[in-house]
Amino acid sequence: LQSYEFNAGATYKNSKGEMFFGGINGFNYFHPDSLYGAETSPVVVISGIQVNDMFFLTDTSIMAKKILNLEYNRNTVTFEFNAIEFTNPGFITYTCLLEGYDKDCVSLGTAPSIRYSKLPPGQYNFLVKAANRQGNWSETPAKIILLIARPYWMETWFILLMTLLAVSIISIAAYFLST
């Protein structure tokens, strides 16, 4: 730049599309087609969560949430996310992975959400990345850990208790039938 100060009305566009701007130390010119978007990568954040198709309410911001604990019957989860990118927000594309469930990354195109239905109990890591129009992907994915508890009848203590109860009933029945 010739200076950071330009004269009002000192502008011109020629037949080739080049633009000229006059300032206190001369003039600057360029062609608008020579400008490219920033070479930065978008930052992606998880902006909303639905559990069993109802918005998940929390005492902190969803973006600050690191772990999501759910009961076994609250196992349909929708993640909503957004990329913080201002040059061409309509061209942002997303890819995500639910580690422990998805075999490969899921390409979502421009859709800023994904729904997982009837997830089995377990621990999952949800990761989402975004790319801008130039194909620059997020350097760090947005991440949240999802823990879905097992129902009590699948817990070891319950299985052992039921086994002990069944053995006791069979033993008592066998004792009374043999006498």
Can I get a quick summary?
The chain has one helix at residues 156-178, and strands at 6-13, 19-23, 26-30, 43-51, 54-55, 67-70, 77-84, 93-99, 106-109, 113-116, 122-131, 142-148.
- Overall, the morphology is rod-shaped
Fraction of residues in helix: 10-25%
Number of strands: 12
Class by alpha and beta content: mainly beta
Biggest β-sheet description: 5 strands, mixed
Task: Give the helices and strands as they follow along the chain.
Answer: EEEEEEEEEEEEH
Distance between the termini: 106 Å
Kindly report the spatial arrangement of strands forming the biggest sheet.
Answer: 6-12-11-8-9
The share of residues in extended strands comes to 35-45%
What does the average pLDDT come to?
89
| Residue windows where pLDDT falls under 50 for at least 5 positions | none
* CA radius of gyration: 29 Å
If helices are DSSP runs of H or I spanning 4 or more residues, what is the number of helices?
A: 1
